[in-house]
Each structure stands twice: as C-alpha cells, then as structure tokens.
# Entry
Amino acid sequence: MEDGSEISRLAPELSDLEVALFLCLAAHQHCRIDTTDANIHDVAKELALICTNTFGLSYSILDCSSATSLDDFRAELLPPGEVVNVVIAKNFNHVNDNIQREALELMHSKQLTTPAGVLEAPNNFLFLPLIVRDETHPINPHLVFVRIIRYPQTRSSNEERPSLRRQHKNNNQLLGQLQQLSTTVSMGADIARYQQDIVVFLRLSRAVAGGISTRSNLYFKSFSK
# Structure
C-alpha cells in the first residue's frame, strides 16, 4: 500500500461510477448523480451491481415521486431490520421537504429515527440521489453533494468482469486502509496554498456556473487526502 501498487492495480479496472463510489466511501462523503430520463433506470441498476459485485455492500433502490411518504422512505431503508450500506434514490428531487430533511439528518448523523426507535447506519454508508435535472423540482439547497454527471458510455461496470467480483474483499481491505491513512495525512503550507489558488481561480472564473461554495472547498480538502 505504501508504494501505491494496489491503487495502480485497481484504478484501471474500475469504471467511472466505480471510481466515484470508491472515492466517496474512502472520504466518507455522499454524491449526487445526474443522468438523463432515458437512462436513469439503467444507471440505478449499474450502481446496484457495483455495490454488490465490486464492494460487497448491501443496497436499496428507492423509486421516489411526489407521492412517496415518510413511512415509505423509512421502510425502503430497512430491509430486514438493518440500514443498508448504499441508498440509491431515483428522482429524489421529487420528494417533499420533510423526506429531504430526513435524508439530510441520516447523512450527517448516520441515524434513522423510526417509531420503533433510533437505528444506526453502517460505517460504509452512502446516500446517492440519482436525478434528472429539472428546474421545477429543485433539490433542497442544504443537501450539498459531490456531483457527478453520468451519460451513456461504451464501457459499463455491469459488463462481465469475474475478476472484480472475486476481488471485492480485497477492494474492501484497500478501502479500509485508505480510510485509516486519510486521517493521518498532514498537509504542508505549499500544498494548502496551491489548493487555495485553484479555489480562488474557480471562484473568479465566469465559466463556473453558480460559483464555488464553502462546502465544496471542504470536499476538495477531504478528497485530496
């Protein structure tokens, strides 16, 4: 691990979505995935396969709509009695604010309050809103995610790759090592200054729509470690 050989071996084998989930798990951050209406179901299936085949994690796919109730949301997270590792929430921007606030609390505290009591989410927990951009259904501004735009590609992680399926235990070991090592990383003044220069440049650039938030600066630091 010290010479980076394991990372060098793993990286070329992973698809774009696998890399995204790997980084989010390593940094303990959640991510939002944007796709097209025609591909949202395929992307959800691909994410589900990544969870089981690449990382050996449990998952739940939520088909969200304006009719989704808070009870429906809670029930989907608890197949038989335990909070799943990964929640894939299709069209999450269509649910009401109460459910979005419940998701926000779950992301921050890793706790889910139910009529039966408080349940703890596992250590490797990801909440993945999978949405089609729609200005008429904006997502709660407090739900700030690392954002990935996913379009159809020639290579997909649901292709037959037996080696990855056999090696998900090794991938989890590598993930655990990265999580531990990232907590011990110290950043020198020159690196911190370099990162800050990048952030300032992006904030001043007219090509960056919406600007750069303070939260995104924290994400940048977290992922760089």
Remarks:
- The chain is about 45% helix and 15% strand.
- The chain has two domains: 5-181, 187-224.
